[in-house]
Amino acid sequence: MNKVAVSFNNKLNLTSQKLQAKLSGLNLVVLDIYQPLLDLVTNPTNYGFFEARKACCGTGLVETSILCNAKSPGTCKNATE
After folding, report:
1. What is the pLDDT of residues 27-72, one digit of tens each?
2. 34-42 vs 2-22: helix axis angle to the nearest 10?
3. What is the CB neighbour count within 10 angstroms for residue 24?
4. Lowest CB count within 10 Å: 62, 70, 73, 76, which one?
């Protein structure tokens, strides 16, 4: 999955640069959420977490849903970690 995301982001950046070169009045903003999220998952202790590869809501390996919170049924007791 990471290779696909990196490939997509590279193509998006290249396409954005080409469009901006062709259309002088065009302002594009490309936000890179991949690198910060990857860093969070691979270095959780840098952000005050201890576990970043296992979901706390029991719905899968990664849970980023707004429905995953301290009041959700089945949320682990140490959700802040």
Report:
1. 989 998 899 988 988 898 998 887 777 767 765 555 556 667 677 7
2. 160
3. 6
4. 73
DSSP per-residue codes, the chain: -HHHHHHHHHHHHHHHHHHHHH-TT--------HHHHHHHHH-GGGGT-S--SS-SSSSSS----TT-STTSTT--TTTT-
* Three-state SS at 33: coil
pLDDT digits (tens, 9 = 90+) for 13-22: 999 999 999 9
Q: Report residue 45: phi and psi, to 5°.
A: -65, -25
Do the beta carbons of residue 20 and residue 30 sit within 8 Å? no
Determine the 3-state secondary structure of 47 from DSSP.
helix
The reported pLDDT for the residue numbered 37 is 87
